[in-house]
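User: I'm writing a tutorial on reading structure tokens. Could you give me a worked example: one chain, its sequence, then its tokens, then a sentence or two explaining what the tokens reveal?
Assistant: Sure. Here is the example chain.
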Amino acid sequence: MKWGGGSAYFQEVADHFGLEAAEPGDEATGDEAVVVLTAHEPPDIPFADYVVYNMEQLVNHDMPPYFYDRLRAAREVWDYSLVNVRHMRERGIHAKHVPYLPPITPVGTPLAAGRVGAVFVGADNDRRREWLDGLEGVVRTNDECWGTRRDTLYAHALLGLNVHYYGGPDTTILEIHRIAPMLRAGLLVVSEKSCDPYYDDLLESAGVVFIHDKRDFQETVRVLLRHPGLVKRLLRRV
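And here are its predicted structure tokens:
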């Protein structure tokens, strides 16, 4: 299978599924398929016959009109979340649930000496600032932090933080693409809950600490940062 190009984030998704890069003019033939990961972005899709794999949040914000037109024109539509699948089926689009499950088993030495503080990686907005401002000992960087740069940040921290961008836990799907690399780097992850129990249940069993509201999130992070020994004990239980 092949995929249409995109950012470093989508390259990681493509690598996970073993997709090779496609060029404009390549078409889906037989069991082969050109998989488009960026149906939500301009410009037009340069393939006449394609499969869409969507990893965007659909329930809590409006997508551009061309997005749903592209889904209807696709050979097939795949989505990482059952929440999105239901949303699309309500609009007459038959989507298949294809989970995104990158490795989450820690590698290396997650409890190595010298790890301190917490890290948050993601786009900045008012909602995230409300949750993260005032927390000392948290390194924050933007949404374009992927690959080696991201992994270097994670290698020096004890905690990984996840806060939703668009809305609260009743309307937002878990950011599995951000949390999985934290777990693989050996971080204890503190995250908002989400509206998708598929991923919440999976990652809670992997040791993610889920919090429902802002005050509890901030207090939990402060306590864990003050007591790195507690963080290490929690990590050993996973």
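What the tokens reveal: The chain has two domains: 2-97, 118-237. The two ends are 35 Å apart (CA to CA).
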